[in-house]
Amino acid sequence: MTTIGSVTRQIAALEISSKQNKPAAAASGSSLRAAHSKQTSQEKVTKLLTKFSAPNPFSSSKPAQGSSLRHPTNATNQHAASSSASSSKSNLATKSPAPVPLDIGTYDGGLETENEKRGEKVYGEAAEELALDSSVSGKNPTREWTLHDFEMGRPLGKGKFGRVYMVRTKSEPKYILALKTLYKSEIVQSKVEKQIRREIEIQQNLRHPNVLRLYGYFHDEKRIFLMLEFAGKGELYKQLSKRGSFSESRSSRYIYQMADALIYLHGKHVIHRDIKPENLLLGINGELKIGDFGWSVHAPGNRRMTLCGTLDYLPPEMVEGKAHNERVDYWALGVLTYEFLVGAPPFEDRSSVNNTYRRIAKVDLRWPRDRELSSEVKDLISRLLQHDPQSRIPLTEVLRHPWIVKYNKHRESA
Ligand code: AMP
Protein backbone atom coordinates (compact mmCIF):
# COMPACT_ATOMS: atom_id res chain seq x y z
CA MET A 1 0.00 0.00 0.00
CA THR A 2 1.23 3.46 -0.79
CA THR A 3 1.68 5.44 2.39
CA ILE A 4 1.75 9.19 2.75
CA GLY A 5 5.32 8.69 3.93
CA SER A 6 6.31 7.10 0.66
CA VAL A 7 4.61 9.87 -1.26
CA THR A 8 6.53 12.35 0.84
CA ARG A 9 9.69 10.63 -0.20
CA GLN A 10 8.66 10.61 -3.85
CA ILE A 11 7.86 14.31 -3.74
CA ALA A 12 11.12 14.98 -1.96
CA ALA A 13 12.99 13.01 -4.59
CA LEU A 14 11.35 14.96 -7.37
CA GLU A 15 12.44 18.26 -5.88
CA ILE A 16 10.44 21.23 -7.01
CA SER A 17 12.17 21.16 -10.31
CA SER A 18 15.62 20.39 -11.53
CA LYS A 19 18.25 22.14 -13.51
CA GLN A 20 18.59 19.33 -15.99
CA ASN A 21 15.16 20.18 -17.30
CA LYS A 22 15.76 23.87 -17.59
CA PRO A 23 14.50 25.15 -20.95
CA ALA A 24 17.07 26.28 -23.46
CA ALA A 25 15.22 29.46 -24.24
CA ALA A 26 13.31 31.27 -21.55
CA ALA A 27 12.18 34.17 -23.62
CA SER A 28 8.61 34.63 -22.54
CA GLY A 29 8.89 35.76 -18.95
CA SER A 30 9.55 34.06 -15.71
CA SER A 31 6.24 32.35 -15.08
CA LEU A 32 6.22 30.77 -18.50
CA ARG A 33 9.76 29.66 -17.92
CA ALA A 34 8.70 28.15 -14.66
CA ALA A 35 5.76 26.33 -16.16
CA HIS A 36 7.89 24.69 -18.82
CA SER A 37 10.90 23.97 -16.78
CA LYS A 38 10.10 20.48 -15.61
CA GLN A 39 7.04 19.19 -17.31
CA THR A 40 7.49 15.51 -16.57
CA SER A 41 8.33 15.90 -12.92
CA GLN A 42 5.65 18.48 -12.41
CA GLU A 43 3.04 16.19 -13.92
CA LYS A 44 4.11 13.53 -11.46
CA VAL A 45 4.03 15.98 -8.59
CA THR A 46 0.57 17.20 -9.61
CA LYS A 47 -0.66 13.64 -9.71
CA LEU A 48 0.76 12.88 -6.31
CA LEU A 49 -0.48 16.08 -4.78
CA THR A 50 -3.95 15.64 -6.20
CA LYS A 51 -4.13 12.18 -4.74
CA PHE A 52 -2.61 13.08 -1.42
CA SER A 53 -3.94 16.54 -1.04
CA ALA A 54 -3.67 19.03 1.77
CA PRO A 55 -5.98 18.40 4.71
CA ASN A 56 -9.44 19.89 4.60
CA PRO A 57 -9.56 22.66 7.15
CA PHE A 58 -13.32 22.71 7.01
CA SER A 59 -13.70 19.10 8.04
CA SER A 60 -13.62 20.17 11.65
CA SER A 61 -16.14 22.70 12.89
CA LYS A 62 -13.46 25.08 14.09
CA PRO A 63 -10.95 26.44 11.58
CA ALA A 64 -7.32 25.95 12.54
CA GLN A 65 -6.13 28.81 14.68
CA GLY A 66 -3.83 31.20 12.90
CA SER A 67 -4.29 29.24 9.74
CA SER A 68 -4.41 30.85 6.38
CA LEU A 69 -6.85 28.33 5.04
CA ARG A 70 -9.76 30.70 5.35
CA HIS A 71 -11.54 31.64 2.18
CA PRO A 72 -11.02 29.42 -0.77
CA THR A 73 -10.61 31.72 -3.73
CA ASN A 74 -10.99 29.33 -6.62
CA ALA A 75 -11.16 25.69 -7.40
CA THR A 76 -7.65 25.11 -8.66
CA ASN A 77 -5.26 22.88 -6.78
CA GLN A 78 -3.24 25.07 -4.52
CA HIS A 79 -1.15 23.12 -2.11
CA ALA A 80 1.08 23.80 0.76
CA ALA A 81 4.15 21.88 -0.23
CA SER A 82 4.59 21.41 3.46
CA SER A 83 1.25 19.95 4.29
CA SER A 84 1.13 17.55 1.43
CA ALA A 85 4.69 16.49 1.90
CA SER A 86 4.68 16.16 5.62
CA SER A 87 1.37 14.90 6.80
CA SER A 88 3.17 11.62 6.94
CA LYS A 89 1.36 9.53 9.44
CA SER A 90 -2.22 10.71 9.47
CA ASN A 91 -4.50 9.24 6.90
CA LEU A 92 -5.70 12.46 5.36
CA ALA A 93 -5.26 11.53 1.83
CA THR A 94 -7.90 9.05 0.96
CA LYS A 95 -10.50 10.56 3.28
CA SER A 96 -10.21 14.23 2.35
CA PRO A 97 -13.03 15.11 -0.01
CA ALA A 98 -11.46 17.48 -2.50
CA PRO A 99 -8.18 19.35 -2.70
CA VAL A 100 -8.54 22.47 -0.65
CA PRO A 101 -7.54 25.79 -2.14
CA LEU A 102 -5.34 27.78 0.16
CA ASP A 103 -5.61 31.49 0.54
CA ILE A 104 -2.19 33.06 0.78
CA GLY A 105 -3.60 36.33 2.10
CA THR A 106 -2.92 39.88 1.03
CA TYR A 107 0.53 41.12 0.23
CA ASP A 108 1.41 44.40 1.95
CA GLY A 109 4.18 45.43 -0.47
CA GLY A 110 6.61 45.05 2.41
CA LEU A 111 9.47 43.50 0.47
CA GLU A 112 9.78 46.46 -1.89
CA THR A 113 9.37 49.13 0.77
CA GLU A 114 11.87 47.36 2.95
CA ASN A 115 14.32 46.94 0.12
CA GLU A 116 14.33 50.69 -0.58
CA LYS A 117 15.43 51.47 2.94
CA ARG A 118 17.27 48.45 4.15
CA GLY A 119 20.60 46.80 3.38
CA GLU A 120 23.46 47.59 1.07
CA LYS A 121 25.26 45.83 -1.70
CA VAL A 122 28.00 43.54 -0.51
CA TYR A 123 31.33 43.19 -2.27
CA GLY A 124 34.40 40.98 -2.23
CA GLU A 125 34.82 37.72 -0.37
CA ALA A 126 31.65 38.19 1.69
CA ALA A 127 29.65 38.68 -1.50
CA GLU A 128 31.00 35.42 -2.84
CA GLU A 129 30.22 33.64 0.41
CA LEU A 130 26.63 34.87 0.16
CA ALA A 131 26.10 34.37 -3.57
CA LEU A 132 23.78 31.51 -2.81
CA ASP A 133 21.77 29.88 -5.52
CA SER A 134 20.43 26.34 -5.28
CA SER A 135 20.29 26.11 -9.06
CA VAL A 136 24.06 25.94 -9.12
CA SER A 137 24.69 24.21 -5.81
CA GLY A 138 26.75 21.07 -5.98
CA LYS A 139 24.75 17.96 -5.18
CA ASN A 140 21.08 18.84 -5.48
CA PRO A 141 20.61 21.60 -8.00
CA THR A 142 17.06 22.85 -8.24
CA ARG A 143 15.87 25.15 -11.01
CA GLU A 144 16.77 28.81 -11.16
CA TRP A 145 14.34 30.90 -9.14
CA THR A 146 13.69 34.63 -8.99
CA LEU A 147 11.24 36.74 -7.04
CA HIS A 148 9.04 36.96 -10.19
CA ASP A 149 8.27 33.25 -9.93
CA PHE A 150 6.07 33.83 -6.88
CA GLU A 151 2.73 35.39 -6.07
CA MET A 152 3.22 37.23 -2.84
CA GLY A 153 0.89 36.64 0.09
CA ARG A 154 0.57 37.77 3.66
CA PRO A 155 3.52 38.56 5.91
CA LEU A 156 4.31 35.67 8.26
CA GLY A 157 6.79 37.39 10.47
CA LYS A 158 9.95 39.40 10.83
CA GLY A 159 13.27 37.74 11.48
CA LYS A 160 16.56 39.28 12.49
CA PHE A 161 17.75 39.65 8.90
CA GLY A 162 14.48 40.28 7.04
CA ARG A 163 10.84 39.47 6.55
CA VAL A 164 9.10 36.16 5.90
CA TYR A 165 6.14 35.98 3.48
CA MET A 166 3.64 33.38 2.48
CA VAL A 167 3.99 32.89 -1.26
CA ARG A 168 2.70 30.67 -4.05
CA THR A 169 4.59 29.57 -7.10
CA LYS A 170 3.09 31.00 -10.29
CA SER A 171 3.67 27.78 -12.17
CA GLU A 172 1.53 24.66 -11.70
CA PRO A 173 1.29 22.90 -9.37
CA LYS A 174 0.96 25.92 -7.20
CA TYR A 175 3.14 25.28 -4.22
CA ILE A 176 2.69 27.32 -1.12
CA LEU A 177 5.88 28.24 0.64
CA ALA A 178 7.33 30.58 3.19
CA LEU A 179 9.81 32.92 1.53
CA LYS A 180 12.38 34.21 3.96
CA THR A 181 14.57 37.19 3.10
CA LEU A 182 17.97 37.80 4.58
CA TYR A 183 19.83 41.06 4.03
CA LYS A 184 23.40 40.27 3.04
CA SER A 185 24.96 43.42 4.48
CA GLU A 186 23.36 42.71 7.87
CA ILE A 187 24.64 39.14 7.81
CA VAL A 188 28.12 40.54 7.12
CA GLN A 189 27.75 43.13 9.90
CA SER A 190 26.83 40.38 12.35
CA LYS A 191 29.76 38.31 11.05
CA VAL A 192 27.60 35.24 10.48
CA GLU A 193 28.22 34.62 6.78
CA LYS A 194 29.69 31.21 7.45
CA GLN A 195 27.00 30.27 9.93
CA ILE A 196 24.21 31.23 7.53
CA ARG A 197 25.86 29.36 4.70
CA ARG A 198 26.24 26.33 6.91
CA GLU A 199 22.61 26.56 8.04
CA ILE A 200 21.47 26.64 4.44
CA GLU A 201 23.73 23.81 3.36
CA ILE A 202 22.62 21.61 6.23
CA GLN A 203 18.91 22.30 5.93
CA GLN A 204 18.86 21.79 2.19
CA ASN A 205 19.91 18.18 2.56
CA LEU A 206 17.43 17.19 5.22
CA ARG A 207 14.23 15.25 4.55
CA HIS A 208 12.14 14.37 7.58
CA PRO A 209 8.49 15.11 8.36
CA ASN A 210 9.50 16.94 11.53
CA VAL A 211 12.32 18.95 10.01
CA LEU A 212 11.34 22.09 8.09
CA ARG A 213 12.23 21.60 4.44
CA LEU A 214 14.32 24.08 2.56
CA TYR A 215 13.23 23.63 -1.05
CA GLY A 216 15.62 26.04 -2.70
CA TYR A 217 17.22 29.45 -2.46
CA PHE A 218 18.33 32.31 -4.63
CA HIS A 219 19.74 35.77 -4.22
CA ASP A 220 19.83 39.26 -5.66
CA GLU A 221 22.31 42.05 -5.06
CA LYS A 222 21.18 42.78 -1.51
CA ARG A 223 19.23 39.75 -0.33
CA ILE A 224 19.19 36.00 0.00
CA PHE A 225 15.78 34.30 -0.36
CA LEU A 226 15.06 30.97 1.28
CA MET A 227 12.17 28.89 -0.06
CA LEU A 228 10.98 27.18 3.07
CA GLU A 229 8.24 24.72 3.82
CA PHE A 230 5.21 26.67 5.06
CA ALA A 231 4.51 25.90 8.71
CA GLY A 232 0.74 26.48 8.71
CA LYS A 233 0.25 26.73 12.45
CA GLY A 234 3.18 29.01 13.09
CA GLU A 235 5.41 29.17 16.10
CA LEU A 236 5.19 26.60 18.85
CA TYR A 237 6.56 29.13 21.28
CA LYS A 238 3.52 31.35 20.80
CA GLN A 239 1.18 28.50 21.70
CA LEU A 240 3.27 27.65 24.75
CA SER A 241 3.26 31.29 25.89
CA LYS A 242 -0.47 31.55 25.35
CA ARG A 243 -1.30 28.39 27.27
CA GLY A 244 1.46 28.56 29.86
CA SER A 245 2.18 24.85 29.52
CA PHE A 246 1.06 21.79 27.58
CA SER A 247 -0.73 18.66 28.77
CA GLU A 248 1.24 15.45 29.15
CA SER A 249 -0.38 13.91 26.08
CA ARG A 250 0.42 16.89 23.88
CA SER A 251 3.96 17.13 25.23
CA SER A 252 4.50 13.42 24.75
CA ARG A 253 3.41 13.66 21.11
CA TYR A 254 5.83 16.55 20.49
CA ILE A 255 8.69 14.78 22.26
CA TYR A 256 8.12 11.67 20.18
CA GLN A 257 8.41 13.78 17.02
CA MET A 258 11.48 15.58 18.34
CA ALA A 259 13.20 12.32 19.25
CA ASP A 260 12.38 10.85 15.86
CA ALA A 261 13.74 13.94 14.07
CA LEU A 262 16.88 13.97 16.22
CA ILE A 263 17.56 10.30 15.47
CA TYR A 264 17.38 11.24 11.80
CA LEU A 265 19.63 14.30 12.22
CA HIS A 266 22.22 12.45 14.28
CA GLY A 267 22.22 9.67 11.70
CA LYS A 268 23.31 12.35 9.25
CA HIS A 269 25.94 13.61 11.69
CA VAL A 270 24.02 16.79 12.29
CA ILE A 271 23.96 17.95 15.90
CA HIS A 272 21.31 20.60 16.37
CA ARG A 273 22.69 22.31 19.50
CA ASP A 274 19.95 24.90 19.79
CA ILE A 275 16.78 23.04 20.62
CA LYS A 276 14.28 25.31 22.34
CA PRO A 277 10.61 26.19 21.79
CA GLU A 278 11.52 29.35 19.82
CA ASN A 279 13.12 27.23 17.11
CA LEU A 280 10.13 24.99 16.59
CA LEU A 281 7.29 25.57 14.19
CA LEU A 282 4.02 23.73 13.70
CA GLY A 283 2.85 22.28 10.40
CA ILE A 284 -0.65 22.52 9.08
CA ASN A 285 -1.71 19.41 11.00
CA GLY A 286 -0.09 20.61 14.19
CA GLU A 287 2.98 18.46 13.64
CA LEU A 288 6.22 19.73 15.01
CA LYS A 289 8.90 21.09 12.66
CA ILE A 290 12.45 21.81 13.69
CA GLY A 291 13.01 25.07 11.91
CA ASP A 292 16.30 26.70 12.76
CA PHE A 293 19.71 25.33 12.02
CA GLY A 294 21.75 28.37 12.89
CA TRP A 295 23.80 26.59 15.50
CA SER A 296 23.86 23.11 14.11
CA VAL A 297 27.13 21.59 13.11
CA HIS A 298 27.88 18.96 10.60
CA ALA A 299 30.34 17.00 12.64
CA PRO A 300 31.20 13.55 11.36
CA GLY A 301 32.95 12.02 14.32
CA ASN A 302 34.59 15.11 15.75
CA ARG A 303 33.85 16.67 19.07
CA ARG A 304 33.31 20.37 19.27
CA MET A 305 34.33 22.91 21.86
CA THR A 306 32.49 26.09 20.90
CA LEU A 307 30.09 27.66 23.33
CA CYS A 308 26.80 28.40 21.68
CA GLY A 309 23.10 27.95 22.02
CA THR A 310 20.68 29.23 24.62
CA LEU A 311 21.75 29.34 28.24
CA ASP A 312 18.76 27.49 29.72
CA TYR A 313 19.23 24.59 27.34
CA LEU A 314 23.02 24.24 27.67
CA PRO A 315 24.20 20.89 29.00
CA PRO A 316 26.83 20.63 31.79
CA GLU A 317 29.62 19.69 29.37
CA MET A 318 29.11 22.94 27.43
CA VAL A 319 28.73 25.05 30.56
CA GLU A 320 31.98 23.54 31.78
CA GLY A 321 33.69 24.19 28.44
CA LYS A 322 34.29 20.51 27.77
CA ALA A 323 34.10 18.73 24.43
CA HIS A 324 30.62 17.73 23.41
CA ASN A 325 28.84 15.50 20.95
CA GLU A 326 25.30 14.75 19.77
CA ARG A 327 24.27 13.95 23.35
CA VAL A 328 23.90 17.71 23.94
CA ASP A 329 20.63 17.31 22.04
CA TYR A 330 19.52 14.52 24.44
CA TRP A 331 19.98 16.94 27.33
CA ALA A 332 18.07 19.68 25.49
CA LEU A 333 15.24 17.22 24.86
CA GLY A 334 14.99 16.73 28.62
CA VAL A 335 14.89 20.50 29.17
CA LEU A 336 12.27 20.85 26.44
CA THR A 337 10.06 18.15 27.98
CA TYR A 338 10.22 19.95 31.31
CA GLU A 339 9.48 23.35 29.77
CA PHE A 340 6.48 22.01 27.82
CA LEU A 341 4.94 20.68 31.03
CA VAL A 342 5.94 23.34 33.51
CA GLY A 343 6.12 26.43 31.33
CA ALA A 344 9.70 27.30 32.29
CA PRO A 345 13.02 25.52 31.80
CA PRO A 346 14.26 23.49 34.80
CA PHE A 347 17.46 25.38 35.65
CA GLU A 348 16.22 28.90 34.99
CA ASP A 349 17.29 31.45 37.59
CA ARG A 350 16.04 34.87 36.67
CA SER A 351 18.17 36.56 39.30
CA SER A 352 21.52 35.61 37.82
CA VAL A 353 23.04 33.94 34.81
CA ASN A 354 25.76 32.45 37.02
CA ASN A 355 23.16 30.74 39.15
CA THR A 356 21.69 29.14 36.07
CA TYR A 357 25.18 27.90 35.13
CA ARG A 358 25.67 26.53 38.63
CA ARG A 359 22.31 24.79 38.67
CA ILE A 360 23.03 23.18 35.31
CA ALA A 361 26.49 22.00 36.39
CA LYS A 362 25.01 20.46 39.58
CA VAL A 363 21.95 19.12 37.71
CA ASP A 364 19.85 20.85 40.33
CA LEU A 365 16.56 19.47 39.07
CA ARG A 366 13.48 20.45 41.11
CA TRP A 367 9.94 19.40 40.40
CA PRO A 368 7.27 22.13 40.56
CA ARG A 369 5.07 22.17 43.65
CA ASP A 370 2.04 23.60 41.91
CA ARG A 371 1.88 21.06 39.11
CA GLU A 372 1.49 17.30 39.39
CA LEU A 373 3.74 15.46 36.94
CA SER A 374 3.36 11.75 36.29
CA SER A 375 6.07 9.45 37.61
CA GLU A 376 6.67 8.28 34.02
CA VAL A 377 7.55 11.71 32.72
CA LYS A 378 9.71 12.47 35.74
CA ASP A 379 11.56 9.24 34.98
CA LEU A 380 12.13 10.23 31.36
CA ILE A 381 13.27 13.76 32.20
CA SER A 382 15.67 12.47 34.87
CA ARG A 383 17.13 9.97 32.42
CA LEU A 384 17.73 12.65 29.82
CA LEU A 385 19.11 15.19 32.30
CA GLN A 386 22.15 13.17 33.31
CA HIS A 387 25.43 14.98 33.94
CA ASP A 388 27.43 12.31 32.15
CA PRO A 389 26.44 12.40 28.47
CA GLN A 390 27.02 8.66 28.17
CA SER A 391 24.45 8.00 30.90
CA ARG A 392 21.66 9.84 29.06
CA ILE A 393 18.93 7.62 27.74
CA PRO A 394 19.45 6.98 23.99
CA LEU A 395 16.83 8.43 21.66
CA THR A 396 15.76 5.03 20.36
CA GLU A 397 14.91 4.16 23.97
CA VAL A 398 13.09 7.47 24.38
CA LEU A 399 10.71 6.29 21.64
CA ARG A 400 10.07 3.11 23.65
CA HIS A 401 9.75 4.84 27.01
CA PRO A 402 6.37 4.19 28.75
CA TRP A 403 5.53 7.92 28.83
CA ILE A 404 6.03 8.13 25.07
CA VAL A 405 4.36 4.83 24.23
CA LYS A 406 1.32 5.72 26.33
CA TYR A 407 0.40 8.71 24.17
CA ASN A 408 1.77 7.61 20.80
CA LYS A 409 0.16 4.21 20.30
CA HIS A 410 -1.21 5.18 16.86
CA ARG A 411 2.32 5.89 15.65
CA GLU A 412 3.48 2.46 16.68
CA SER A 413 0.78 0.82 14.63
CA ALA A 414 1.56 3.16 11.73
P1 AMP B 1 12.68 33.85 11.51
O1 AMP B 1 13.46 34.79 10.68
O2 AMP B 1 12.93 32.42 11.15
O3 AMP B 1 12.80 34.12 12.99
O4 AMP B 1 11.15 34.09 11.13
C1 AMP B 1 10.41 35.19 11.58
C2 AMP B 1 8.98 34.76 11.80
O5 AMP B 1 8.38 34.36 10.57
C3 AMP B 1 8.85 33.55 12.70
O6 AMP B 1 8.79 33.92 14.02
C4 AMP B 1 7.56 32.90 12.22
O7 AMP B 1 6.45 33.51 12.83
C5 AMP B 1 7.54 33.23 10.76
N1 AMP B 1 8.06 32.12 9.96
C6 AMP B 1 9.35 31.87 9.67
N2 AMP B 1 9.48 30.76 8.91
C7 AMP B 1 8.22 30.31 8.70
C8 AMP B 1 7.67 29.19 8.00
N3 AMP B 1 8.46 28.34 7.35
N4 AMP B 1 6.34 29.02 8.00
C9 AMP B 1 5.54 29.89 8.66
N5 AMP B 1 5.99 30.96 9.34
C10 AMP B 1 7.31 31.17 9.38
UniProtKB/TrEMBL annotation:
<protein>
    <recommendedName>
        <fullName>Aurora kinase</fullName>
        <ecNumber>2.7.11.1</ecNumber>
    </recommendedName>
</protein>
<feature type="binding site">
    <location>
        <begin position="278"/>
        <end position="279"/>
    </location>
    <ligand>
        <name>ATP</name>
    </ligand>
</feature>
<dbReference type="GO" id="GO:1902115">
    <property type="term" value="P:regulation of organelle assembly"/>
</dbReference>
<dbReference type="GO" id="GO:0032465">
    <property type="term" value="P:regulation of cytokinesis"/>
</dbReference>
<comment type="similarity">
    <text>Belongs to the protein kinase superfamily. Ser/Thr protein kinase family. Aurora subfamily.</text>
</comment>
<dbReference type="GO" id="GO:0045143">
    <property type="term" value="P:homologous chromosome segregation"/>
</dbReference>
<feature type="compositionally biased region" description="Low complexity">
    <location>
        <begin position="80"/>
        <end position="90"/>
    </location>
</feature>
<feature type="binding site">
    <location>
        <position position="292"/>
    </location>
    <ligand>
        <name>ATP</name>
    </ligand>
</feature>
<dbReference type="GO" id="GO:0008608">
    <property type="term" value="P:attachment of spindle microtubules to kinetochore"/>
</dbReference>
<keyword id="KW-0723">Serine/threonine-protein kinase</keyword>
<feature type="binding site">
    <location>
        <position position="180"/>
    </location>
    <ligand>
        <name>ATP</name>
    </ligand>
</feature>
<dbReference type="GO" id="GO:0090266">
    <property type="term" value="P:regulation of mitotic cell cycle spindle assembly checkpoint"/>
</dbReference>
<feature type="region of interest" description="Disordered">
    <location>
        <begin position="18"/>
        <end position="116"/>
    </location>
</feature>
<dbReference type="InterPro" id="IPR017441">
    <property type="entry name" value="Protein_kinase_ATP_BS"/>
</dbReference>
<keyword id="KW-0547">Nucleotide-binding</keyword>
<dbReference type="GO" id="GO:0000819">
    <property type="term" value="P:sister chromatid segregation"/>
</dbReference>
<feature type="compositionally biased region" description="Polar residues">
    <location>
        <begin position="56"/>
        <end position="79"/>
    </location>
</feature>
<feature type="cross-link" description="Glycyl lysine isopeptide (Lys-Gly) (interchain with G-Cter in SUMO2)">
    <location>
        <position position="276"/>
    </location>
</feature>
<dbReference type="Pfam" id="PF00069">
    <property type="entry name" value="Pkinase"/>
</dbReference>
<dbReference type="GO" id="GO:0032133">
    <property type="term" value="C:chromosome passenger complex"/>
</dbReference>
<dbReference type="InterPro" id="IPR011009">
    <property type="entry name" value="Kinase-like_dom_sf"/>
</dbReference>
<dbReference type="GO" id="GO:0051233">
    <property type="term" value="C:spindle midzone"/>
</dbReference>
<dbReference type="InterPro" id="IPR008271">
    <property type="entry name" value="Ser/Thr_kinase_AS"/>
</dbReference>
<feature type="domain" description="Protein kinase">
    <location>
        <begin position="150"/>
        <end position="404"/>
    </location>
</feature>
<dbReference type="GO" id="GO:0004674">
    <property type="term" value="F:protein serine/threonine kinase activity"/>
</dbReference>
<dbReference type="GO" id="GO:0044779">
    <property type="term" value="P:meiotic spindle checkpoint signaling"/>
</dbReference>
<dbReference type="GO" id="GO:0005524">
    <property type="term" value="F:ATP binding"/>
</dbReference>
<dbReference type="InterPro" id="IPR030616">
    <property type="entry name" value="Aur-like"/>
</dbReference>
<dbReference type="InterPro" id="IPR000719">
    <property type="entry name" value="Prot_kinase_dom"/>
</dbReference>
<feature type="binding site">
    <location>
        <begin position="229"/>
        <end position="231"/>
    </location>
    <ligand>
        <name>ATP</name>
    </ligand>
</feature>
<feature type="binding site">
    <location>
        <position position="160"/>
    </location>
    <ligand>
        <name>ATP</name>
    </ligand>
</feature>
<dbReference type="GO" id="GO:0072479">
    <property type="term" value="P:response to mitotic cell cycle spindle assembly checkpoint signaling"/>
</dbReference>
<keyword id="KW-0808">Transferase</keyword>
<feature type="active site" description="Proton acceptor">
    <location>
        <position position="274"/>
    </location>
</feature>
<dbReference type="GO" id="GO:0000776">
    <property type="term" value="C:kinetochore"/>
</dbReference>
<feature type="compositionally biased region" description="Low complexity">
    <location>
        <begin position="24"/>
        <end position="34"/>
    </location>
</feature>
<keyword id="KW-0418">Kinase</keyword>
<keyword id="KW-0067">ATP-binding</keyword>
